[in-house]
Amino acid sequence: MKDYMYRENFDKFPLAMAYVPWQHFNGIYDNLDEALEAGTVFPELDKPFTGRRCCKK
C-alpha cells in the first residue's frame, strides 16, 4: 500500500498563482450607516446577496 503522507516532490511545483485585476479607487460611502448596512465602505464592493445560484439553467 502506498504511503500518501505528502512526501512527494512538491518543491518542484509553484506554491500558488493568482490573478488579481487592477482596481480603481472610486471613493467611499459618505453615509457611514449605509456603509455599515452594506458591510463595506467601498460602493463598488457592495454586492448584495440575491439568494440565487450563479449558474444559468
Give structural notes.
- The protein is low in regular secondary structure.
- The chain is built from one helix and no strands.
- The chain has one helix spanning 32-38.
- The longest helix has 7 residues, at 32-38.
- The radius of gyration is 21 Å and the shape is elongated.
Q: Give the rounded overall mean pLDDT.
A: 79
- Considering DSSP H and I runs of 4 or more, what fraction of the residues is helical? 10-25%
**Continuous helix count:** 1
Strand content: under 5%
Radius of gyration: 21 Å
Specify the structural class.
little secondary structure
* Residue windows where pLDDT falls under 50 for at least 5 positions: none
**H-E order:** H
List the helices and strands and how they pair.
Elements: H1 32-38
Give the key terms.
57 residues; little secondary structure; 1 helix
Short description:
The chain has 57 residues and is low in regular secondary structure.
